């Protein structure tokens, strides 16, 4: 993608998956990575993508435990499966929410969506652009 560096793509691919675990109260432990590559990617691009992913994995104490790499002549794809652990009965689930429960968020709501809009509009100079772009590209 012209919008993001290979490192940002790797970071984001892992971040969105461990975020889903955290939202349920789970501690992410392991990630599996499946890559479908067109074949025109450079070794440097693949290395940088993994470097971005591993930087976040190390920060969160998540182990990249394996996965797969296949050739896909028409499209590039990165699929991450994050596996975590949670004490029995401690999952935070939407279907068990009740009136009066506390709801928490991290970051500023809408910031990442603003980053997408800036990228779509090719407007990296707008007020607040660095924060919005960072929220989308490296959550």
> N-to-C SSE series?
HEHEEHH
Strand order of the largest sheet: 2-1-3
N-to-C terminal Cα separation, in Å? 17 Å
Which class of secondary structure composition applies to the elements?
alpha+beta
Q: Please report the number of helical segments.
A: 4
- The helicity comes to 25-40%
Instruction: Give the total of beta strands.
Output: 3
Q: Average pLDDT across residues?
A: 91
CATH fold call of the largest domain: 60s Ribosomal Protein L30, Chain: A
How does this structure look, described?
The protein is α+β, with helices and mostly antiparallel strands and about 140 residues long. Helix content is about 40%, strand content about 20%. The protein is built from four helices and three strands, in the order αβαββαα. The chain has a three-stranded mixed sheet with strand order 2-1-3, with helices on one face. Helix 2 links the parallel strand 1 and strand 2. Helix 1 runs parallel beside helix 2. The longest helix has 18 residues.
Task: Write a short abstract of this structure.
It contains four helices and three strands, in the order αβαββαα. With 139 residues, it is α+β, with helices and mostly antiparallel strands.
Topology at a glance:
Layout: H1 6-23, E1 27-37, H2 43-60, E2 63-71, E3 77-85, H3 111-120, H4 129-137
Parallel strand pairs: 1-2
Antiparallel strand pairs: 1-3
Helix pairs in contact: 1-2, 3-4
């Amino acid at each position: 993608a012209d919008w993001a560096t290979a490192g940002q793509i790797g970071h984001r691919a892992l971040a969105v998956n461990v975020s889903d675990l955290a939202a349920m109260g789970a501690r992410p432990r392991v990630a599996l990575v499946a890559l479908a590559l067109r074949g025109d990617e450079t070794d440097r691009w693949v290395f940088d993508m993994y470097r971005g992913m591993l930087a976040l994995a190390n920060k969160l104490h998540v182990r990249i435990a394996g996965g797969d790499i296949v050739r896909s002549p028409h499209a590039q794809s990165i699929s991450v499966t994050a596996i975590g652990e949670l004490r029995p009965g401690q999952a935070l689930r939407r279907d068990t929410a009740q009136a009066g429960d506390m709801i928490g968020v991290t970051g500023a709501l809408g910031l990442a969506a603003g980053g997408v809009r800036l990228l779509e509009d090719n407007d990296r100079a707008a007020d607040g652009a660095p924060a919005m772009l960072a929220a989308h590209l490296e959550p």
